[in-house]
Amino acid sequence: MSDPTSVSPTVSSLSSIETFSRRHACDLVKEYARGEEPSDRTSKVLFAFLDYLPSDSAVVVADDIISYSGKLHELADHYVSTVLFPTNGGKTPPAASTRPGPDNIEDVFTKITPQNRDQGKLRSVCLARDNHRCLLSGLYDSKMVLEVLSDTERQDVETVSTEAAHILPYSLSSFSESEHHYKAAIWEGIFHMFPKLRDFSSADINDPRNALTLWNSLRNEFGSFRLCLEPSAIPNRYHIKRYSGFSTYLNRSLPSDGFVTFTAHDGRYALPDEYLLSIHASVGAVLHASGMAETIEHALQANYVFLPLTAAHKLGCCWWHSESFH
Known about the structure:
The protein is of the alpha+beta class. The protein has 13 helices and 9 strands.
């Protein structure tokens, strides 16, 4: 099983000035780490964001660390509560942290609107585009195969149940009026860290660019960041990255060379977006490199309220609290 540290850091693509900025940021985090308590994961989280994000995002993180050098604990808190936890599909309570200093939450507040799930329509669109198959295994959808293949053609065809898997989770665009402000804080944090995403909004959450047809079992791995798709130098070709905890019996259904190429079989619908998949892959690398993957997964399974690092650190516990919310 591949190790998260095998993901290639993005430092080499930075300019000399940006590289200097990153080095200065690393020095500041190292200085913080010298006085860090064993239960505090601030330095691990910040180093992971510096090392495994796309180059434009790594620059943002380096600048944040330099700007808020006296508040690194709060900065890591913000990154976890607005990026790592929500992109796992977690619900963040109204106490979700904001980045130390100015932000654009009110601007984002007016931009985002709640969306209906509309899973049936999205699934139909993705199945048409993806040739009625799981994009990674190539296995036919068990219902659609009855419509697209003859009885003779179906005799030796393996099928699976599929669904349209969101890349950025639908939960980002599901909120009530009372939740609107803290969902805006989450979107602001994501837009800040991934500048190229600013043209994307909550209204695009059910766009086929943000979804891919996956066998249900693979969708679970993808949603839990145990499987990610890393863009390659060839458009629409991705390296299938698997992490510790991945269900190994699924390997037999994946390409033996570890790569998959997407092709649109219905030109009306765009293929999964490379930048969105790169964000998913980067978040997966950060989760595993920082040690937060298991922590957040346990919180989600227990349906625990997620606490910012600051509160959890003061309580001497992990980054959630066992008070369920509904």
